Amino acid sequence: MMDKFIIINTLISITVYFILHIIILRKNKQNEIFKWLVYLYLMAGFSPFLIGWRGGFIFGSFVSWIFYTFLVLIYVLAILGVMESSIRIRLLKEIYDAGIRGISLKQILKKYNKDVILHKRLQRFLSAGEISFYEGKYMLENKFTAYTLPDLAIKSIWKLYTGEKL
């Protein structure tokens, strides 16, 4: 009974997350995406506890919340992160969105010139708090963010296996 509850509760939570993601992130600016991903995680993260509290499955709710957290991390880091940062995938999406009318090279170059790409990436880093802009210069911040998780994981694994810093 508890196993079924955990699986169903986790699936409900991640479904709520995806629905909120589709509704809310379509209407928000690109530079606010990190903030909204955190808000969405917290909003949908309450659903395991709301469901479990009424049924008396507090421990099951906590376990399903952990699974939900892992699923959100996998989605944000492995799927959404790749989709947002991969120019190739975004270009294919633009062509797909154009449909049967197609898209001209001129239209593509408007969206994908180096200045636009660099500006968007720098804005993403600024909004995430990874870098700061002071007196006309960009500087690294020594903060721990979701964007530094993959780097931290790779460095930790490297140090565990080799004993050396990467």
Structure description:
The radius of gyration is 20 Å and the shape is globular. The N and C termini lie far apart (46 Å). Helix 1 (2-25) packs parallel to helix 4 (58-85) and helix 3 (47-55) packs antiparallel against helix 4 (58-85). It contains 8 helices and 2 strands, in the order αααααααββα. The model has no long low-confidence stretch (mean pLDDT 77). It is 73% helix and 5% strand. It has helices at 2-25, 33-45, 47-55, 58-85, 87-98, 105-111, 114-128, 149-162, and strands at residues 131-134, 137-140. It is mainly alpha-helical.
Q: Briefly, what is this?
A:
The protein has 166 residues and is mostly helical. It has helices at 2-25, 33-45, 47-55, 58-85, 87-98, 105-111, 114-128, 149-162; strands at residues 131-134, 137-140. A two-stranded antiparallel sheet has the order 1-2.
